[in-house]
Structures are given as structure tokens and as C-alpha cells.
Amino acid sequence: MDEKTMVNDVLNSVKASLTTYQRVISETENIRIKANNTTNA
User: Fold this and answer.
1) Model pTM?
2) Among candidates 16, 40, 23, 28, which has minimal Cα distance to 8?
3) Helix, coil or strand: residue 41
4) pLDDT value at position 34?
5) What is the pLDDT of residues 5-40, one digit of tens each?
6) Does the CA dihedral 30-34-39-41 come out positive or negative?
7) Which pLDDT does position 22 carry in this prediction?
């Protein structure tokens, strides 16, 4: 495997991890917002 392929694999892995992390943060914030709306209602 050449260096370019290895670098692309690493970058793709990092991108996938960041995408997952972003989704989890978004879901957590949505839950928090919903909880606040329920509490404040």
C-alpha cells in the first residue's frame, strides 16, 4: 500500500469519526432542548 492510499484511509476514518461525533452532539443538544421545553412548559 502506498503512502497516498494510507493517508487517504486515515483522513476518511477521521472524517467519519467527526461526522459521527457531530451527529451525537446534535442529538444530545436536541434532547437537552426538548427537556428544557418540557421543564419550562
Assistant:
1) 0.69
2) 16
3) coil
4) 81
5) 999 999 999 999 999 999 999 999 888 888 887 776
6) positive
7) 94
- State the cell numbers at 14: 477521521
Q: How far apart are CA 14 and CA 24, in angstroms?
A: 15
- How many Å apart are CA 32 and CA 13, to the nearest integer? 29
Rounded Cα distance between 32 and 4, Å, is 42
Residue 33 identity (one-letter amino acid)? I
Amino acid (1-letter code) at residue 27: E
Cell readout for 18 is 467527526
